[in-house]
Structure formats: C-alpha cells, structure tokens
Amino acid sequence: MSEKELEALDSIIAANSGGGNIPKMDFGFDSKKLDSLIAINAPEKEQLKAMGMKDDVGLITRRFYKQALKIYNQSGKGVVQAFIDSIPISMFILLPIFAFILKLLFFRRGPFTHHLVFSFYYYSFLFTVFSIIVIVNFVWKIPDWIDWLVAMSTFFYLLLAIKRFYGQGYFLSFFKTCVATFVYITFMIPIAIGVMIAGAFLFY
After folding, report:
1. Of the residues 48, 78, 108, which one is the last residue of a structural domain?
2. Which of 15, 21, 27, 177 stands the most exposed, by the fewest C-beta atoms within 10 Å?
C-alpha cells in the first residue's frame, strides 16, 4: 500500500472522527465535554474521566482508555499504518497454530517440532512472495489479477511441499492441503485480523 493510499485511509478515519461534513461518531461518552477539556489542555486524568474511566480500574483497562484517548486526540491518523505494522506480530502467532493444524493432519509423522520446521520454511516462502509483490507494485503498478494469481500460487507450492515433506500420494496431499487451507482461512485469518486490530490499538 502506497503512502498516498495510507493518507487517504487516514483521512477517512479522521473524517469519521469529526472532520468534514460527516457526522461525528458516537463514542458512548459526552464528546463535547471531552473536546472542551482537550481545548483547555486539561490534565489527562480529567480527560479520561470524561470518557467514563473510573479511578479504581485495572492496568489493562487504564491502558485501553489511554489508547482510545490518544486515537481520539489525533483523529485516528496513523491507525492504518499501525495496523500494517502489526502484521509480523500476527504472523508470529499464527505460525505455531499452522504447525498444530499440520500435526492434526499428520499426527503419525513426527513430533510437533517436525511440523513447526515445515511451517517455518513455508512462512519464509510466503514472506518472500508477498514482499516481492509489494516491492514490484511500489515500483510499477501491476494488474490486480496478476497479484491474485501469484498469491494463489502459494497453494500449489504448499501442495508440492506437503507431498515431498510428508511423503504421501497426490490425492492425500491434495486433500490435506485443502483441509489445512480451509481451516486456516476460515478460522486463522479472522484471528490474525483480530490480533492486528488489537496490535494497532495497543501500540498506536
């Protein structure tokens, strides 16, 4: 994603946070009171109270309110970039989960570390492919169908890798590749998106 596209997304977030002609979002608290406190540069404690934070909240809840206040103050600028920066964190979490899926599919083919090594090599391939896509698009904008074609080729790479690594026939390898891909896309991708959203919020 280019810098201009990031700026465009940030501007949309900023507009929905109160800029332009788009109505301001309802955050569940008196935004006018908070705006007035921000305008007079009131202490952060008073601003957090205006958002509904109580004095006896825990550390995690306090962190949540502080991050929400930070995003509110900056009208959401930079959230998209923070979301993108959290991708490596989500991939790091998903790698052992993918290895666990393979362990269930090939439970007689060695210990968990055996599948973890395979997952590491496959993820390295994914990083390489998608890095090339990003770099090429940064230099020269290629058609989207080519991007999707290259992305879909990772499925066939996984098929061949599974057949060679686990030593099974084409039919079983194809079936288990389909199962692993289906489970990964259906359950793991939403988890990854959740991790990315949480990471963007907490480390913004």
Report:
1. 78
2. 21
3-class secondary-structure state, position 51: coil
The alpha carbon torsion through 150, 154, 159, 162 (nearest 10 deg) reads 150
| Domain containing residue 94 | 86-202
Which H or E run contains 48?
helix 44-50
In order of 4, 22, 57, the CA distances from 14 in angstroms are 15, 10, 29
- In the numeric block, which tokens belong to residue 103? 């362990």
Last residue of a domain, one of 30, 59, 78: 78
pTM above 0.70, yes or no: no
Domain count, the chain: 2
User: Would you say 91 and 123 are in contact if contact means Cβ atoms under 8 Å apart?
Assistant: yes
Give 58-107 pLDDT, tens digit per residue: 777 777 777 677 666 655 444 555 555 566 666 777 888 889 999 999 98
Task: Report the C-alpha gap between 49 and 72 in whole angstroms.
Answer: 14
